[in-house]
Design brief:
The chain is of the alpha/beta class. It has four domains: 7-166, Rossmann fold (3-Layer(aba) Sandwich); 174-403, Alpha-Beta Barrel (TIM Barrel); 405-508, no CATH class; 511-611, no CATH class. The protein is 38% helix and 17% strand. The protein has 22 helices and 21 strands. The protein has a seven-stranded mixed beta sheet, sandwiched between helices. Strands 8-11-12-13-14-15 form a six-stranded parallel beta sheet. Helix 1 packs across helix 5, helix 13 (406-424) packs across helix 15 and helix 19 (515-528) crosses helix 20 (540-546). The longest helix has 19 residues, at 406-424. It starts with 6 loop residues before the first strand and ends with a strand.
Amino acid sequence: MKKCENIVLAALNAKYIHPCPALYSLKEYAREYRDRIRICEFTINQRPEEIIEALYQKKPDLLAFSCYIWNITQTLQICRILHILMPEVPVWLGGPEVSFEDGSFLKEHPFITGVMRGEGEKVFRMLMDHYICGTFRLDDIPGILWREAAQEEWTGNERIREGRSFLPVDLVEMDELPFLYEDLSLFRNRIIYYESSRGCPFSCSYCMSSTEKRVRLRSLDKVFGELAFFMRAGVPQVKFTDRTFNCSPERTRRIWSWLLEHDNGITNFHFEIEANLLDEDLLTLLGRMRPGLVQTEIGVQSVNPLTLRAVSRNEDVARILHSAEVIRKNGNMHLHLDLIAGLPYEDYASMRESFRAVYSIHPHELQLGFLKLLKGCGLYRDKEEFGIVSSPFAPYEVLKTRWLSYEDILRLKGVERVLEIYYNSAQYPCTIRALERFFPDPLSLFEELADFCREKDGMAHSGSRLAQTALLHAFACAAAPEEEEAWNERTVLDLYLRENAKSRPQWAEDPSGMRDQLHSFWEQEERTGNLFPEFRGKRAGTLKRMFHMERFTRICEEAALTAGYETDGKAVKEGLYPALWLLFDYRHRDPVTGNARTLLLAEGADGRIFSL
């Protein structure tokens, strides 16, 4: 066997901003060999030829790929071509997508040398011992599956072997795992993923995390030191990858209290939490956080008791929704709630109720996901019992169930698309909130919006922001034509809340008739610095270009609420002011929604604009 001097660890990530922490953890855990290990990251959107060329030019002695549902198809295609070009180079796979494969996988893919199943750090280091030093035989490495070859090439007829009878590798204690981010330059403009625990105490049968019942925790001394490192470096966001971050409420309290005490005013921390484990003290602690310091993701999945029992989720739905509502009302953090379509006993009517219950919280993001039948999960084994049919190709998404037809799935897919564009983007809060009044339930709103978009040749899916806004405007006017003038103002408000759009919608009020009003307003601001004392003396024309102002006569209460006022919108109805104005300050944005800060102004009977 040729001695390996050049090992390449590779992964195809979903996007550039998403690194693959597994590669860095493998390299650092095998620290005695790290000078011989190189990491190569690509994205699934790159051309296969480009990836093949880059890897071939590395002249590897061994290749190892990290495999997930989003990259397995392209990874296998690339491995097949590389084997043709470099048949002498062993190719190993690892990661959750291959962790439950058996010998048939290697028979089906004769260009793959072996598979590391399960947790990879110890296995990879033993593989390096084998290939670099020869101190381990493959037979002695637990948790691997490999193709035994008598020569330096594979024919596809070799004997498939399992290391130590497929004994699982001993799990690594969390404090043994290396810290991956000593050199932050490797992760510039990318998300920082941080792991403070592994495993999950729950047994949800659709989830890979349910296969490991033991929860391993990184010591708090290490966690605090590493979080302090991120804060000193001014990292914009740290995403905890812990499957249930708050599985230990006391530990959670200590970490969140530490973040509150050491907040640098910049870094945001993302947590995936189990809302059932949030007591009132923890909810109160979350409420004290700086706006934007923390964001939370909560998996509701369904509110149907039969469904939750069938997938081994013993949840108190009322408590989950209560916790989510408290977090949302606090208004200081982004709240992400999840639903899964395609679970047992969830028919379309049940799905409608689950959607209604979760939407009623008005989370900042409502992810409507679709069941994926993953090997190793309980639901994969029980799929025939529940009549669940999924695609045979990654990501193995549900096609139909005993309770949902393929037609139902397609309808929900349409809902998912418009939900992402018009709700989860947080770009149309005023229009969407107003539209809710005209539909019997939230799902009906997005069903009809999806149908409307489909009839218009799917413009919303690929068009510009202005085109998407135009489509929503047309839909709203069709849904409630008596409010057309109000829809004109709502969609304009939404458009300018997020950006100082250069192209103005054709239905927006013509600004040419307001030039004198605006010029007088900014001339006064130039003289007095009433709103922006830091810009006193700056020329009116310059100030006008720095900000945007919009006039409202039909949706004054909604405009006032957008600016954080409770009552001033009523003043227009009561005849005190002919109109209200919003001033959009794009220098300052809401840290939770990303919308521009808005200031409420009034228009007097003489046309003069003044601050309230």
